[in-house]
Design a protein that fits this description.
269 residues; eight-stranded mixed sheet; six-stranded mixed sheet; 16 strands; binds 2-oxoglutaric acid
């Protein structure tokens, strides 16, 4: 008999500290935390990491420290996924592809197979991203054992067009790795909740913690359900945040308030 699909999916969000410009230290830290997440009594189905966790925002040196051709770190994440039988939404890494630097999310299935790759499409000028990074050109969704998920990274959540496009393509969960700093905690929480409520989807957001230079990252990773209820929220310290995704809930909420049927796109575009 085939394995039964569980009605809920256990999520572990690794709200980690990131060492500025030290990919080796960050890889070690991330693998240790992932190991800890994997050994929880209730084993996660999915582990989620923060944005640019290999380098932090060491943009002045990014060309030298970004993952060469996006090989080493994706291989490590894939090996972890395979050896633990856990899906990995690998936050994002800075990678150097043929001399161009991208901020890219890699996603792996339980057998270590690559399910998706998404490169951040909206570059954040307040942190000079556009001077050092190349923007991605594709909107990306992927399947996690029957759940359709959408990819976005940090600043992307300021663009409701992206999450709406993903929702229209069937996404029931939006993943948001981030390095979002003070003083914009209010923006972070409000935007994440809005994306969940307006699209009637889960939002799983993983923000880093700690200080790099004069920038303070506040954590507050969140799992928000399609009603906009907070399933779990971190504080400002390193933590593995856990929560469940109920496969049926996005459909139930969309039936109760049929936002997608009530849209009038002819009038908006
Ligand atoms: O939009 C913001 O306020 C923060 C965005 C950000 O830090 C990023 O995209 O890296």
């Amino acid at each position: 008999m085939g394995e039964q699909v569980k009605s809920e999916m256990n999520i572990a969000v690794v709200q980690a500290y990131v060492e500025l410009g030290d990919p080796d230290a960050n890889l070690k830290r991330m693998l240790d935390l992932m190991e800890k997440a994997a050994s929880a009594e209730e084993k996660p189905d999915v582990i989620v990491l923060p944005e640019m966790w290999n380098t932090g925002y060491a943009l002045d040196r990014i060309r030298d420290i970004a993952d060469p051709e996006g090989r080493r770190l994706p291989e490590q994440l894939s090996a972890f996924a395979r050896s633990h039988g856990i899906q990995v939404v690998g936050g994002s890494i800075a990678e150097n592809i043929g001399g161009q630097i991208y901020n890219s999310m890699y996603v792996f299935g339980r057998n270590g197979e690559q399910l998706a790759k998404y490169s951040k499409i909206h570059l954040f000028r307040l942190m000079d991203e556009e001077k050092h990074l190349q923007a991605g050109e594709q909107v990306v969704s992927f399947e996690l054992e029957g759940i359709t998920a959408g990819a976005s990274i940090c600043y992307d959540i300021r663009f409701p067009e992206l999450s709406r496009t993903l929702a229209l393509a069937g996404a029931q969960v939006l993943f948001v790795p981030a390095q979002w700093p003070h003083p914009r905690l209010h923006h972070w929480r409000t935007l994440l909740m809005a994306r969940a409520i307006e699209n009637q989807m889960y939002v799983v957001a993983c923000n880093r913690v700690g200080t790099s230079g004069d920038t303070d990252f506040f954590g507050h990773s969140m799992i928000i359900d399609p009603w906009g209820e907070i399933v779990a929220e971190g504080g400002e310290e390193e933590v593995i945040l856990t929560g469940k995704i109920d496969r049926a809930l996005p459909g139930e909420v969309r039936q109760r308030i049929p936002v997608f049927e009530d849209r009038r796109p002819r009038l908006y575009f």
